[in-house]
Amino acid sequence: MRRFAAALAVAAATLAPAADGQGKDARVREDAKATKGASAPAEELARTLVSERAWNQMIDAFTQSLTRQIEAGLAQQGGTPPQGLAAKVRTELADALRWAQGVELQAKALSQRFTPEELRSIVGFYRSGPGQKLLRELPELARTVDQQIQALLQERVPRIVEKVAPSLAAAQQHPGGTQATPAPGAAPGAGGAPAPGAGAPPSGGNAKGSVPPGTPPARP
């Protein structure tokens, strides 16, 4: 989730006006840096783990989150969002976070941590029946576990706040004296303390739910 917030900050920065020529030159340099040092087996594995379909789903999720943040910020200023805001945000994010660049960055990181022989073995596993099933099932498994963790946090965070900060817990009680149960990600003072890391959009490659860092996205 923290990786998503960082990527979102980068994406927001791309919305600032810039000269087209300078922007294109900078993107070419970024891609060149990403490509340097990646081996062929690493690139093959990276394309297996980061499918173009999953990447596009991630961009869609980023788009929804950033659009909501921009709309909320404009509303606080008394303004209204421009027409076609979501489409404009999607276009900018797709340009700032390109699939090819993501693959190369992943490949470079894999090359630094695995030998070519290890990478070929991993690729072989993901080409096998169990490997293909793992790629298909992991995102849904991750969503299920994430939902269960969020439910546990919603139940247990108020108790933790009551133990470590009794005065804060008392101040957040309802008039009837019962402890307010916060929804994960709720802002402080809005009925309880926020669940750690809650409220962030998914960081993985699937727009339907969050995927823990390192979880390979579903293949197209």
List the helices and strands and how they pair.
Layout (H helix, E strand, L loop, with lengths): L1 H12 L6 H16 L4 H10 L2 H25 L8 H12 L2 H15 L2 H12 L1 H36 L1 H6 L49
Distance between the termini: 23 Å
Helix count equals 9
Number of structurally distinct domains: 2
Instruction: Give me the count of strands.
Output: 0
Report the sheet-strand fraction. Answer: under 5%
Rg, Cα atoms, Å: 21 Å
The shape is flat
Helix proportion range: 55-70%
Largest sheet: none
Structural class: mainly alpha
Stretches with pLDDT under 50, minimum 5 residues: 1-22, 183-220
Oligomer type:
single chain
Mean pLDDT: 73
| SSE order | HHHHHHHHH
Describe the protein.
The chain has two domains: 126 residues, no CATH class; 85 residues, no CATH class. It is flat. The protein is 65% helix and 0% strand. The chain starts with a helix and ends in a 49-residue tail after the last helix. It is mostly helical. It is built from nine helices and no strands.
